Amino acid sequence: MKTRLLFLGPPGAGKGTQAARLCETHSIKHLSTGDLLRSEVAAGTTLGQEAEAVMNRGELVSDELVLAIVESQMKDLNGAGWLLDGFPRTVPQAEALDKLLETMKQPIDAVVLLELDDGVLIERLLARGRADDTEAVIRNRLEVYRDKTAPLIDFYAAKGLLISVEAQGSVEAISERLETALS
Ligand code: B4P
After folding, report:
1. Which of 70, 103, 116, 166 is least enclosed, having the fewest CB within 10 Å?
2. How far is the CA of 114 from the centre of ligand 1 (A)?
């Protein structure tokens, strides 16, 4: 089983949902930059105040801010396995992660790309109804994904790390597909 993982995919593909299940089953540390940013917002920290407006517009929080959060969290990682969910989201974030993992001597085992049609993504997110889940904001997030995050597909494919998983269907069916792909 591969246990040093990145989850990549458009907003609403189910990265958070599937990452939580996989990490629970295999006792892997789950690190979601979305969740970490939302905790900062809820706690009303300076960082959270800076991030909130950006997230509610469907834009990406600055690379500097996200990298500072990730670096501090990764200090606590041990060899037991980790899953970075929603990070990296830009090429500079991916390059910074490469450097960090090199110093930690913990190479990535696999990058999972969850693939899903825009129509289903929009339906799922509208049903979730978070502050950043209005139709106009979702459309902006999809555009930001294509522009800033989708280039990472080629970035990781070139390293031979990319595994694509169809993210259509029930949560259980997708979990089974993932288990098979990573075993
Ligand atoms: P994230 O928190 O990463 O969330 P997401 O991409 O919107 O959703 P995800 O793919 O995790 O979908 P989920 O499982 O929740 O990002 C939010 C924001 O944070 C970003 O827009 C950005 O502003 C900021 N951010 C985060 N990381 C950043 C970074 N590295 N750099 C800069 N900014 C960053 O599923 C969605 C919904 O579908 C849920 O309601 C779920 O219950 C449902 N669902 C899941 N699987 C389903 C299935 N199989 N069938 C039906 N429904 C399903």
Report:
1. 103
2. 11
Q: Which of 77, 80, 76 is nearest to 28 (CA)?
A: 80
Q: Is 15 annotated in the active site?
A: yes
Q: Confirm whether pTM is higher than 0.90.
A: yes
- CA-nearest of 68, 106, 115 to 87 is 68
Q: Which two tokens stand for residue 133?
A: 């889940």
| Catalytic (active site) residue 21 | no
Q: Closest by alpha carbon to 14, among 113, 114, 164, 141?
A: 114
Tens-place pLDDT, residues 41-76: 999 999 999 999 999 999 999 999 999 999 989 887
| Among protein residues, the one whose CA lies closest to atom 50 of ligand 1 | 170
Question: Where on the phi/psi map is residue 77: left (φ > 0), alpha (ψ -120 to 50), or beta?
Answer: beta
CA of 70, closest atom in ligand 1: 30
Give the Cα separation of 41 and 97 in Å (integer).
24
Phi, psi of 10 (to 5 degrees): -65, 165
- Encode pLDDT of 115-163 as tens digits: 999 999 999 999 999 999 999 999 999 999 999 999 999 999 999 999 9
Structure-token match 């080629």, residue found: 154
Catalytic site residue from 4, 21, 38, 89: 89
For 45, the token pair is 């920290």
DSSP structural state of residue 90: S
